[in-house]
Amino acid sequence: MYDRPRPNPPLTAMTFDQMLERVRYEGAYPTREHAEEAVHNVLAALGRQVTGDERVELAQCLPVEASLTLTAQIPDTERLTGWGFVKDLAVRTGAAIARWDTGAVLAVVTRLAGPDLLARTLDQLPDGYALLFGQAELRRPQLAA
Predict the structure, then answer these.
(1) Which residues, in sequence order, are CB contacts of 68 under 8 Å at separation 6+?
(2) What is the pLDDT of residue 6?
(3) Which pTM was predicted?
(4) Contact criterion met (CB below 8 Å) for 48 and 75
(5) C-beta pairs of 98-101 under 8 Å, 24+ apart in sequence
(6) d(CA 125, CA 102)
């Protein structure tokens, strides 16, 4: 009965206002406007990196306003590492706290997506994203040439 791990079901039916309050709490932002700016900036950057079924499913997990920000982006042909993602976000937004914003927003996205979708999403992204989502970064096996 207790030998099987139970999956963490994703949160559902979170409104955009609830998402902003959660991000505001996670990021210790002084105002809701700061949280909203972080959400839009980080989800736009994520929308440039995530593709395929994971992109569609991730959009379905988010409140409508957040989903529209994610899906309005055309995926980049250049795949950025986790560190490259943060640097690109900092350059595009001029935010000195891009890493902080990323962590606050993706912590909430992690809860909304649930462990299965998060694992599939991380599998398609280059190295370095697991840490941004608050997960352990496991080394991928290297294929022999």
Answers:
(1) none
(2) 46
(3) 0.86
(4) yes
(5) 100/27, 101/27, 101/38, 101/41, 101/42
(6) 15
Token pair of 54, please?
């994971």
What is the spatial distance between Cα 81 and Cα 87, in angstroms, rounded to a whole number? 10
CA-wise closest residue to 36 among 72, 73, 71, 65: 65
**In which band, very low, low, confident or very high, does the pLDDT at 43 lie, cut at 50, 70 and 90?**
very high
Tokens of 95: 């935010």
The answer to whether 93 and 34 are in contact (CB under 8 A) is no
Query: Exposed, middle or buried, 42 (CB in 10 Å: 0-12/13-18/19+)?
Result: buried
> 82, 129 in Cβ contact below 8 A?
yes
Distance set, CA 36 to CA 65, 95, 104, 123 (Å): 10, 14, 11, 28
pLDDT digits (tens, 9 = 90+) for 1-35: 444 444 544 445 699 999 999 999 999 999 999 99
Residues in Cβ contact with 110 at an 8 Å cutoff, skipping those fewer than 6 apart: 118, 133, 134, 135
Q: Which spans in 77-97 are helix H?
A: 82-93
pLDDT tens for 77-114 read 999 999 999 999 999 999 889 999 999 999 999 999 99
